[in-house]
Design goal:
245 residues; alpha/beta; Undecaprenyl pyrophosphate synthetase; six-stranded parallel beta sheet; 8 helices; 6 strands; 45% helix; binds farnesyl diphosphate
């Protein structure tokens, strides 16, 4: 833990946010501004992932969900998709020991089984190896789209109806939350998007129903500890009413 992040500060730094999600946007623009290839923007983006995962653990966030690869990202040029997959491979291999040392449990949301077989194997091993860690959950969204996630959840519930386990009129919010990929994570408190875009881009649409939203112009490769703390502070200043008054 950083010397400036002692245990007494932990509760203050999260401002009560248990689950934070981030749409990590702007790697390409970061690279372009520096006249570098996009691939180097993504590479720097992974360094930011590593840094923010560490800091999130230090400040006491219980769950961090990162949008790494959407179900729409397959439309990018093949070499960029392959760069992103290469970085993912490397990241899991190089950081798994650190996850274990820091009590990080890995979780994947999205249909990751459609990725290359070797990545699926790496992920399955990492999931099994970190399953008992309980300091923080790092949920990485891979081949993820919220509409796809909700459709799969509806299919799960429909199958339960078909088996006679639930009456259609008894289907409730808990059934749906429990059938989503995020089942078991705390409710989503804060959703951050970097790089100035003001969209949710098919990310956690159900889970964001009562989340606070935070948008920053900062490009993902430049997102750092002070930015995360600023977002949490802004969260702390919001008055959350959940539809009440
Ligand atoms: C957006 O930048 C970023 C992504 C496509 C996803 C984020 C991916 C990473 C940080 C690297 C892989 C992640 C892990 C967990 C290993 P963009 O290319 O859309 O940027 P632009 O809008 O400026 O072009």
């Amino acid at each position: 833990m950083d010397p400036d992040t002692d245990a007494a500060q932990v509760a203050n730094l999260t401002h009560g946010a248990r689950h934070v999600a981030i749409i990590m946007d702007g790697n390409g623009r970061w690279a372009k501004r520096k006249h570098l290839p996009r691939s180097l923007g993504h590479k720097k983006g992974v360094e930011t992932v590593r840094n923010i995962v560490r800091i999130a653990g230090e400040v006491g966030i219980e769950a961090l969900t990162l949008y790494a690869f959407s179900s729409e990202n397959w439309r990018r040029p093949a070499d960029e998709v392959s760069d992103l997959m290469g970085l993912l491979r490397q990241y899991i291999q190089s950081d798994i020991d650190e996850f274990d040392e820091n009590g990080v449990r890995l979780k994947i949301i999205g249909n990751y089984k459609a990725l290359d077989n070797d990545i699926v194997d790496l992920i399955d091993n990492a999931l099994a190896r970190t399953a008992g860690n309980d300091r923080m959950t790092l949920a990485i969204a891979l081949n993820y789209g919220a509409q796809d996630e909700m459709l799969r959840a509806v299919q799960t519930i429909a199958a339960a109806v078909k088996r006679g386990e639930v009456e259609p009129e008894h289907i409730n919010v808990s059934h749906m939350s429990g059938a989503l990929d995020t089942a078991g994570l705390p409710p989503l408190d804060l959703l951050i998007r970097t790089s100035g875009e003001l969209r949710l881009s098919n990310f956690l649409l159900w889970q964001a129903a009562y989340s606070e939203l935070y948008f920053t112009e900062t490009l993902w490769p430049d997102f750092d500890k002070s930015e995360l703390l600023r977002a949490l502070e802004s969260f702390g200043n919001r008055e959350r009413r959940f539809g009440g008054r």
